[in-house]
Amino acid sequence: MTSPHFVYRQGELYAEDAPLTRVAAQVGTPCYVYSKAAFTEHYRAYAQALAGGPHLVCYALKANSNLAVLGLLASLGAGFDIVSVGELERVLAVGGDPGRIVFSGVGKREDEMRRALAVDIKCFNVESEAELEQLARTARSMGRTARVSLRVNPDVDAGTHPYISTGLKENKFGIAIADAERVYHYARELAGVEPIGIDCHIGSQLTELSPFMDALDRLLELHDRLAAAGIVIRHLDLGGGLGVDYQGETPPSPGEYIAALRQRIGERPLELILEPGRSIAANAGLMLTRVMYLKPGEHRSFAIVDGAMNDLIRPSLYQAWQRITAVCERHDVETHRWEIVGPVCESGDYLGHDRPLAIAAGDLLAVHSAGAYGFVMASNYNTRPRPPEVMIDGSEIHVVRQRERLDALWAGESLLPGATPA
Ligand SMILES: Cc1ncc(COP(=O)(O)O)c(C=O)c1O
Ligand SMILES: N[C@@H](CCCC[NH3+])C(=O)O
């Protein structure tokens, strides 16, 4: 992927106007580096394409929930798609408007429903009848009515990795399209909930329009049947899922996608809600890591770097390919094919296989397209502190999350009584 916000100048990679060598010197490695301009541009591509009609862009914060990202997007007018009370509190912490929040997820707890009802979020995306009944009970006990969309499982093949495909009938998500009409009738009669929308999300990293269009057609058929039965639907939420360029993929742009949706929706008076995550965040960030040791070999050659699967798990978990480049181009060593691996004690701990790079120990590498599902999926495996996050704005470097302190990793733990070192 080539981003206009991460470019080489005289052989050195910059994030906007900040050289990444300066970022690494300031905060150390590994670290995540984001571009404010890229986040802004990616969000605006949605907002501008949707501007012709009633709409809401609900950024799916599971992709990247750093407060600086949320605050930036809220300032641009974004709403948010949340999947936990933790994500709700993050949005509230940056002053986000609860009236622009939709709550997705197959397993919302009652305390999570209560908090979301108390702050009066826009809509709950309900994924089963059992959840609908729980939400209705919770709302009634608070003297409230919950606005709901049913997340319908349209049974379409998103054509993406099985772990991130969600719209097939064998997936755990949503209410089967065949049952949806009956459940809408039930919801209409059920005190404590008011059906106002239809929702679906068929998967992530989609690079073709056709699965989205197939899902939309099924939702529109449902909409029209409900309308004929007097059930008024105010919005259609198509979820997230638009893919990005990791390795030369050419997904439709938000503009193309939205134009196709609007054309199909036609004259129906529906607010259009989208929940993009990856397409806003992925190519707005990268992970910086430093080569510690080179271990050339006859069979394979390893470049051992200081970032690992605990910092960025996508390669290990999904065999995801993310571009890896040297931050400073060098011409004094030969290009060689390297396995880029981290220090974690797992053979599956790698960031890239068989990458042609001209590198030496001490060099900085950039793992591109890491702004989505990067830091948010980081763990402390091997008691490794999670890396810092930095937002670049022009030539300014803002540390928007400090590197985790080691003692914070065991702060909540305690010894058994009487267990003192022998
Ligand atoms: C319900 C829902 N909405 C939105 C998203 C965001 O998806 P993406 O990051 O592919 O845009 C997801 C994650 O796939 C999701 O499960
Ligand atoms: N974490 C996944 C995407 C999951 C989408 C969650 N609904 C990835 O990195 O590709």
TrEMBL record:
Pathway: Amino-acid biosynthesis; L-lysine biosynthesis via DAP pathway; L-lysine from DL-2,6-diaminopimelate: step 1/1. It catalyses: meso-2,6-diaminopimelate + H(+) = L-lysine + CO2. GO terms for molecular function: diaminopimelate decarboxylase activity; pyridoxal phosphate binding. Substrate binds at R278, R314, Y318, E346, Y373. Its cofactor is pyridoxal 5'-phosphate. Pyridoxal 5'-phosphate binds at G241, E275, P276, G277, R278, Y373. Gene3D superfamilies: Alanine racemase (3.20.20.10), Lyase, Ornithine Decarboxylase, Chain A, domain 1 (2.40.37.10). Homodimer. Belongs to the Orn/Lys/Arg decarboxylase class-II family. LysA subfamily. Specifically catalyzes the decarboxylation of meso-diaminopimelate (meso-DAP) to L-lysine. This is Diaminopimelate decarboxylase.
